[in-house]
């Protein structure tokens, strides 16, 4: 059950080394890659947190 917590490493590792995503192309709706990449991780992180929370919370009977 604790293995679900490993999902929380994904956003950390994806944003750990900025030179990997520090570029302008490709753009999305006129927004440079650097910005939309980070913004997309905000949404992905929220989804991952929800998944981990739902799968690890204790169920009261």
DSSP summary, beta strand count: 0
In this structure, how is the largest beta sheet organized?
none
Mind telling me the C-alpha Rg? 15 Å
Distance between the termini: 19 Å
- Tally the structural domains: 1
The low-pLDDT segments are: none
Tally of alpha and pi helices: 2
- Find the structural class using helix and strand composition: mainly alpha
General form: elongated
Give the averaged pLDDT, no decimals: 90
Order of helices and strands: HH
Helix percentage: 40-55%
**What percentage of the residues does DSSP assign to strands (E)?**
under 5%
Your description of this structure?
The chain is an all-alpha fold. The chain has one domain (2-56). 51% of the residues lie in helices and 0% in strands. The protein has 2 helices and no strands. It has helices at 9-15, 33-56. It is elongated and about 45 Å long. The two termini are 19 Å apart.
Features:
mainly alpha, 61 residues
How do you describe this structure in short?
The protein has 2 helices and no strands.
Q: How would you summarize the topology of this molecule?
A:
Elements: H1 9-15, H2 33-56
